[in-house]
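Before going further, learn to read the protein records used in this course. Taken together, the tokens spell out the fold as the letters spell out the chain. A record is reproduced here so that you can trace the correspondence yourselves:

***
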Amino acid sequence: MVQTNTNYDAGSIQVLEGLEAVRKRPGMYVGGTDVKALHHLVYEVVDNSIDEALAGVCTRIDITIHADSSVSVKDNGRGIPVGIHPTQKKSALEVVMTTLHAGGKFGGGGYKVSGGLHGVGVSAVNALSEWCEVEVRREGAVHFQRYERGYPKAPVKVIGKAKADDTGTKTTFKYDPQIFKEEMEFRFDTLVQRFREMAFVTRGVTIHFLDERTQRRMTFYFEGGVTSFVRYLNRNRENLHPVVHVEKDLEGIGIEAAIQYTDAYTESVYSFANTINTVDGGTHLTGLRSSITRVVNDYARKNGLLKDADPNFSGDDTREGMTAIVSIKHPDPQFESQTKVKLMNPEVQTYVTQAVGEVFGTFLDENPQAAKAIIAKCLTSARARDAARKARDLVIRKSALESLTLPGKLADCSERDSTKAELYIVEGDSAGGSAKQGRDRHFQAILPLRGKILNTERARLDKILGNNEVKALISALGTSIGDNFDLEGLRYGRVIIMTDADVDGSHIRTLLLTFFFRYMPTLIDGGHLFIAQPPLYRMAYKNQVKYVYSDKEKDKALKDLGGGDKIGVQRYKGLGEMNPTQLWETTMNPENRTLLQVTVDDAAEADRTFDMLMGDEVAPRKKFIQTHAKTVRNLDI
């Protein structure tokens, strides 16, 4: 019998004072306590400096990760006010740093446009930090306050002089290991991508980023704004026309967009609200997409490029090969949550549709050659989509007739609860045989692929559906593909790519990742895709056997085993070299294995990278190989 607390009275009601609510429920404020939330702490502080840039009073932001993993964010904005707050009777700096929903973004006086909407950002960071220090240069003085786990150690004090024109804020914080308990660290590349995006959508601001742990540094400054962003994304693609730039102010809402069609087969569209990347889109993205579809259809009808009998282009047809950025600046943005992943303001859709429609419509009218190239691409896309639909229907009908939807090569598991089941995608029959024998048949299924699957970066869906290996994969997963993709149908909670630790294995893994990124991104977003980590070496000395997964581990194991030259070292080049028991022990047993979860921290950067590595343009790929050749390890000659 479940015991309950029967004394539910006034004394049972818990009141969380000040920032205790943040420490108790960090997920409500920064999205959790994982590595993504850790990076969100940095974004919240940098967002405040970006707000100063949007107000036209900040031109430079310096971000530094220090050797102890503390982070400093310094700007040359106005500096947080330090005078005594009229109602709180303490320094306004202390109020901002220690009080939820306190800031200059509510009354409309401090900021016209702001990314930090809820006023919990910097105070939440303070609450979740082991310690935090703020220096404010303002009114000819340097003001300072230190906090530990959200509480000030002393009142704000003056620690030095500053020139009259030297203003700004420097915030330094060290995340609290009591909150972020797992071993994690800031990723330079993740932060770089975010800062690059911020610089693109905030023209005229210089963002300098230094990582003192590795001495890596990057500086961003883009005079061209979102137009520069689109050019950056398309630098490995063949463009059909110059970038179309939209910039309008409607009812106090700033709207900026940049659009360019390329020879790619997928769309690359990203949306921002007050410089924040709204990864789940929202009303501004809906407005952009619907406007493009309407303008393209209107132009095609008006100029006889679509016949009366032809149906209108669908949204998918008009967006194939389109790269676009839409960025809005709104005085009162409504987001779905504190982590600001989706914009909800309904009026934004109308204004974006109007602004983009006018400019893009005029561009097509004034550039008939570019317009014809865009319409021709839409026509090809529509035909290919129709062929893909017929191919997909044929696959579905065939499956229904055979009453068996699973491919013959799949060794399925007996578990019917998809959350407990796993699918291993392995290369070749040799590794497939070992995996089938070594697995736990109760919850692990094996799908061997023969040879390399199609490079889906260079093919449309109709061609992809004609590839037997891809068909087997789609059939095994149970989600369908393209317009019909449905995550509810997923038959395995974990989809694990398991390939050899050699060049061919890496290539197959990249081909599979390209396919999932382009045609099943929801699978990645839902946290279902993983990469298995087979060992690189088997080390044996007397009766001891050790499996290691990197050269660094190998060197350590050589010392630990203490056998000198007598230690037997076997380098595994393929999964087939391991017997079923070894494969189970090292790579498939949940008790011992290491799985890397595939995530897409920054879709725009992933888009550009896949395009560069797997697309048609050779020159960027050659440059990439030449740049990174010296850092390659374990290359098979």
About this structure: The radius of gyration is 28 Å. Residues 301 and 310 are 10 Å apart (CA to CA). The domain at 226-384 is CATH 3.30.230.10 (Ribosomal Protein S5; domain 2). Residues 1-17, 397-404, 632-637 have pLDDT under 50 and may be disordered.
